[in-house]
Specification:
single chain, mainly beta, Jelly Rolls, 8-stranded antiparallel sheet, 1 helix, 8% helix, disordered N terminus
Length: 228
């Protein structure tokens, strides 16, 4: 009787486990820059003359560092209280400051002050034949830059960069290697748009190419990042 009861208990436990839904993986949005229209299935607006080129990963968009920019009608991390923002890109030198990937919440005008400028940015700084990463995020109650000029990389090569927030720590990476981190009080951003190749206000243009970007409403581990 005891053996029969044990077998039934094991079978029942197994059935209950099988019936328990697995935790859903966070759903990512991926943009592939193998076209100049409808990137990610979203309305896309081109300025200047960015061009399609071949890369080791497929087609990519090349920006001339002068007036090339793409604006996409979506803020893909809107509503995310945690995030991982990644991109596969190739910096090719050029101006010192290049703000090349900008996610911006639509401006909101509070009753007691100017419009908010809530945003994410991927930037680089370039000197001679080297560059270093600048990751930036700001919104109501938080504003932080992760920049480390001592950690430089040669231009003209492909890199995977990432910035993430796990509910406490804001971090940035190059090719899966942590560049730095800080504790911030991040709050989810609202709907908006993206600018690739320059800031939304058309300054600090990027010289180089972008192959892809991925946006995840969770803090991924480096082993799960895009790879160059």
């Amino acid at each position: 009787m005891t053996d029969t009861w044990n077998r039934r208990a094991v079978i029942a436990a197994g059935a209950a486990l099988a019936a328990t839904p697995a935790l859903a993986k966070p759903k990512s949005i991926t943009w592939t820059f193998d076209r100049l229209t409808g990137i990610g299935g979203v309305a896309t607006h081109v300025e200047g003359d960015p061009t399609l080129i071949d890369s080791p990963y497929g087609k990519a968009v090349q920006f001339d560092g002068v007036d090339d920019r793409i604006e996409i009608d979506q803020h893909p991390l809107a509503g995310a209280s945690q995030f991982t923002f990644e991109a596969l890109f190739r910096p090719d030198g050029g101006a010192f400051a290049q703000r090349w990937f900008h996610l911006a919440e639509d401006p909101q005008a509070p009753t007691d002050g100017p419009p908010l400028n809530t945003r994410f940015l991927f930037e680089i700084r370039v000197k001679d034949d080297a560059w270093w990463l600048d990751a930036f995020v700001t919104g109501p109650g938080y504003k932080h830059t992760l920049i480390f000029p001592e950690k430089t990389f040669p231009v003209g090569k492909w890199y995977a960069v990432a910035q993430s927030y796990d509910g406490k720590m804001y971090r940035c990476y190059v090719d899966g290697v942590l560049q730095g981190e800080a504790e911030i009080a991040f709050k989810a951003q609202g709907p908006g748009k993206a600018s690739v190749g320059a800031r939304m206000n058309k300054i600090d243009y990027f010289k180089g190419a972008v192959r892809s970007a991925r946006f995840t409403p969770a803090a991924l581990k480096p082993k799960a990042f895009l790879k160059a």
